[in-house]
Amino acid sequence: MSNFKLTPAGDRVTLSLRGRLDAYSISAVWREASEALAGIDSARVVIDGTQIDYCDTSGAAMLLDLAQVARAAGAETEFANLPEQAQQLLGLFDPAKLVAQNQQAGRSLWFERIGLWGSRVGNEIVALLSFVGEAVAALVIALRHPARIRWGDAVRIAREAGVDALPIVSLISFLLGVILAFQAATAMRRFGAEIFVADLVGLAVLRELGPLMTAILLAGRSGAAFAAELGTMKVNEEIDALSTLGFDPVRFLAVPRILATVAVIPMLTVYANLIGLIGGAIVMMGFGISLASYYQELLGILDLSDLLTGLGKSLLFGVIVAGVGCLRGLQAGQGAAAVGRSATSAVVSAIVLIVAVDGLFAVIFYYAGI
Amino acid sequence: MTSPIIRVTNLTAGFADRIVLRDISFDVQRGEVFVIVGGSGSGKSTLLKQMIGLYRPQCGTICIEGEDIVAARGPKRLSILRKIGVSFQTGALFGSMSVLDNVRLPLEAHTDLPQQAIAMIARMKLQLVSLGDAADRMPAELSGGMRKRAAIARAMALDPLILFLDEPSAGLDPVLSAELDALLLNLSRMLHVTLVVVTHELDSIFTIADRVLMLDGATQTIAAEGPLLKLLAHANPQVRRFFAPNKEQM
């Protein structure tokens, strides 16, 4: 352990330190000696190390800091009788620079922060526009030369994004249909209008909730997977390797993912619609509405445009999910944390864009009378 | 003669049914720079990871200041681990933290020092490895050499008695490699730290080694051990060829 003693003598104060000065033993001494030195009114402070048994860099840090505290209190400071190791260590550091760096740390001006935020947002927009341009160009080239598309990758990605997603899509869509029908039926029962629940479930699922929930599930599964996979490739310099081999990373990596996602999302949406309607049917049967009546009511209220508007939106949602996933992956920084950040960012950005686009479609369809 | 700071006795280690190190015994003396060398796959890194307690040996003991790191558990093991610092081959800096925060981390976890003091000590460690101006940068923004130096600063955070370094100069250019060797020698002399270095960089071995242990991958045993001059004139031609490959070919 270590301790200290403060001895005033005329206009001079001697701070005598004793024992081991290492990271484990100096905490109390550092705090108490700093407080004592901060309150002195002597012209001179001598930090005496005659009784120091051991001093490592943590001890040296304390010596430098105590000297700085005494100087700040207006006293001239000197070290005396320090062990050789402590003297050598103190000689290695620039105390003024250390103290200045420590005081500056963490300070940043508010306008500097706003500027940095603005710059980040600007860079983000430029990166997004640049990626959209590159992806559109790569897709056009790919569609003009289908043989150049990596169909093996596209099929694998379509299977992972589509077939492998069936269980979760089934569960969520079924529960969605059940919850929607149950909530609506409970309210409509008071008016004896349970049969119209079929209209609500049919329209809501086909036009809005089927495509929306499928896209959100796809963003959580496949969008995050694309970002993590491409992010890891970026960290491992595989993207750089592709570039040096003459491949365009967007065409090589993003195009198969966008095509695969756009191919599977309408099928998943149709499947989700069907499961949602089945969920609604089961609830309706519980309320005494026969399956035939439910079916007839659906046929009466739904037409092809309801299905097609949902599918049209789902195509755009597919582009958003795959595009944002690939963009975030290609934008990943260095290190394991960057991959995690890019996956999170891919999911959040995709969901925000999907909901915003869905809202936009709702307004357009309303004014277009669709 | 003082007792060795590390004593490895009859160490046998490996993976599943594959033996990598067979019945190995040696001592590391206090304050020396002890270099472990050997061909690729000879078990250098495995030996290092045994010595720092990451892997468990099949049999044998590894004593650090007289305490067996293999048998130690709980607080006793922690007290042994506080005596050592490790710099891994790739640096192994935490990518989500700044360089300064990487160095602060062990100080925050193992001491009750106030934040201001921790920051100052961490900055001193970074000044020691000439990274004072890179404190607020993220590891991803550092060059390979800077990452290695930052890893050494983190390993030195608690002023350990022994510093283990796995391939510290691998992948560095000769100038950076020489600078790193000078830094290691400086740390050893100024802070009286015992260095255990795994490397196969001949320039580094010639610059920093007080004693060398050479592993033989074929027999999984020690091929040679001792001061470098002794190994240069070793009876085993394989050992001589390792340290002077061009000379042996002529």
Q: Secondary structure elements and their pairing?
A:
The complex is a heterodimer of chains A (370) and B (250).
Chain A: E1 2-9, E2 12-21, H1 27-38, E3 44-55, H2 57-72, E4 76-80, H3 84-92, H4 95-104, H5 110-144, H6 151-161, H7 166-188, H8 197-235, H9 238-244, H10 249-286, H11 291-301, H12 304-330, H13 336-368
Parallel strand pairs in A: 2-3, 3-4
Antiparallel strand pairs in A: 1-2
Helix pairs in contact in A: 1-2, 5-10, 6-10, 7-8, 7-10, 8-10, 8-11, 8-12, 8-13, 10-12, 12-13
Chain B: E1 6-15, E2 18-28, E3 33-38, H1 44-51, E4 59-64, E5 67-68, H2 74-81, E6 84-87, H3 99-110, H4 115-128, H5 144-155, E7 162-166, H6 174-191, E8 194-198, H7 202-208, E9 211-216, E10 221-226, H8 228-232, H9 237-243, H10 245-249
Parallel strand pairs in B: 3-8, 3-9, 6-7, 7-8
Antiparallel strand pairs in B: 1-2, 1-4, 4-5, 9-10
Low-confidence segments of chain B, given as residue ranges, are: none
Shape of chain A: elongated
Please summarize the sheet with the most strands of chain A: 4 strands, mixed
Query: What is the total number of structural domains of chain B?
Result: 2
Q: Enumerate how many helices of chain A there are, as a single number.
A: 13
